[in-house]
Structure formats: structure tokens, C-alpha cells
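Pasting as-is:
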Amino acid sequence: MSLSATEAKVVARLRTMAPELRELLGRLVGTSSHTADHEGVNRVGLEVERELMISGLRVGAFVTGRSGQHMIARHPASTGHRLLLLGHLDTVHPRADEDPTLSADPTRPGILLGPGAADMKGGLVVMLAAIRALALEGQLEGRALSVLLSADEETGSPTARDLIAQEAEDHHLCLVFECGRDLGGGRSSFVVRRRGMMRSTLRIEGIEAHSGVDKAAGVSALLDAAHRVIALEALDDESSGQAVNVGVLRSGTAPNTVPGEALLEIDARFDDPDAGDSLQAAIRAVCTRPGPEQGRARRQAVLDFREGPRHEPMATSAAMQRMADRIVLWGRDLGLELVPEARGGASDGNIAAAHGCPTIDGLGSVGGRIHSAEEWVDESSLVDRAALCALTMMRFYEL
């Protein structure tokens, strides 16, 4: 299938926008938006709001009081397919740890470096560019389009979850702009399946004591935590897709002090809901069972276990497989070799898919090393993926 005259005009317009897209990515990367930095997240939202309003969408914000502002924008229509574009405004990069500057990689031509460049400010640029090109060519007229951008995706979308679920139930297709992966040989990926994810925390309260004067008067929260870390990590089962990671363990104040407090932050992954239930129960059991008796009083530490966000797996439904097959073919019309893949990380796409909306993820810019100081994005993918998004939107509306 070749491009129609209208489709070719949209793609040609996107090609002329390449310098503008790099500039927009630079502005977004240059605005720190760590999840906990609510003001920074909102500043990124204002940049995005301006772009969406230029394209004729009506924009609003939802304030939760516990995160930055979630953004929702609409191009309403009374009939036809309803399309949801899903993304997030926050990053994992704390302001103190990042250099919020987009720069060219001196060793790899065409590669841009910057915190959040791939996850997912590059994806925001792709989405905004596709919408702008379609609007300029009159291809949004009469089309029902919603854009939802969460402010706390990197922490599991605890305050955006209900909003995402509500929007998913009211739309026929969801496109998610997490990054694609470079597979080499001119190929790149998008995502049709994701593992489930759940988070939990365990706070342990012991009793501080001077380790040289009267260690036996203490109850070590760290010793208790150590036993539990070993037990939690033992729940890993690679063969079944089950993974448990204690990503944070904080404890202790001085070498000569029995630690009176400890904090564990736990991340778990699973392939199906039943396995998730079993794994959740196993984690709960490890984190709530009595710990070792310590000191001369034979006391145990006090436990405070909290279960956090849980995303069900994003499974590949028949409708999702049909759309993925179409996207592969449509990509070829643009000279792109696309490969659908399963990915271990969770996203807001998990929530949308769990609420009945066929979901295609990983349609953002192509990049890598996400969540690291070397996060990168392929500059050419800003235009290529925007063209793919625009073509997918146009053809979806005609199905």
C-alpha cells in the first residue's frame, strides 16, 4: 500500500519540521520534571499545553494535591472512532542529579543526549508533531481525539490511575508514546505486551544502642531487613517471568550505632494476574512475618508494610494483534522496519489495556539507556515516528 496524496502531504510537512522538533525537545529536556518536582512537571505541562492549543485542542488540567497536574486535551467529535494518545510529563531524574541540557553525542552522529530525552520527552515531541501536522493539513476535522498525560507515571501513576481507566473505557484505541528500541539493521521496535508490576514498602523500627557500650540493648532494624532482602530476592523465578527486586535499602546513622530504622522499597514483575496474586501474597508473607529476636530482651523489630500501585500485565489481545500487524505494514509505506515486542517494564499502557482499550505502546522516539545519565534519543526518529503516528491516526479513523 502506498501513501495517498493527503498522507504524502502530511509526511512532507513533518520533514520540514525537523529543526523545530529538535528545538522543542531541547526545551522539554531543559525543564527538570522529576516526579516529586511538581512545579517542574507543571512547567513541562505548560509547554505541551501551548503546542496542543496551537493545534486546536481544548486543554485542561486535573489537580490532585499529591502530584503535579495531569493534563487532558480533546478534539471532540460526535461520531466515529475515538482515539486516545497516552503519555507522561514526569521523569526519574532528580534536579540535583541531572544536567538538563540536550546535547549531541560526540561519538555517534545523529544521537542526542539528555535526561528524559527518550523517557519520554522525545515521545511527547513525536505525539505533538503528529497532531500539529494533521491539524495543519485539515486531517483532524471531525475526528474524536483525546490526549492524556499523567504527572506521576514514573511512580506507578498512583493519582492518575482512575483517570486513565476512565478514559480507556471511553475510547476505541490507545497509542502510548514510551520509547521504541533500536534493534540494529535499520529496525526498531514498538510494544504489544508488558509484564505486570507492583510496588511495596516495608519500614522496620528497631531500637538504637551504642555498639561498643551496650549493643545487647539494641534491636537492629538492618539485621531484620537483611533477612527479608534475602527472602524477597529468593522469590525470583526467571522461567515463569516472575521477578522481585529490593531496589532501595536505607538504614543506619553511624558505624558504632545499632540501626534503629530501615526502609525497603520493593519492585515485583509478573506475567499474568494469577501469578501476580501469588507473588503479592508471598511478598506480603515475607514482609509481615515476625523477625529474629534480638538483644538481651529478645525483642523483635516493629514492621509497617504498605502495598503500593499494581499494574496488571498488558496482554496482546486479538484486536491489538490486528492493529500491530497493520502498523508494521503502514511503517513499510514510510520506509520503516518495525518489530512488535514484549517488554518487561510497565507503563500507563498496562492500565489502559486492563480496562478494555486495545493498546499499542512504544510508539515514541527511538532511544535507549533510559533512567540513566546516558539517556539518548535518535534525532531522525522524531520525524520518522511522528510520521508513523500521523499515518496510524489517519488510517485508524478510516477503518
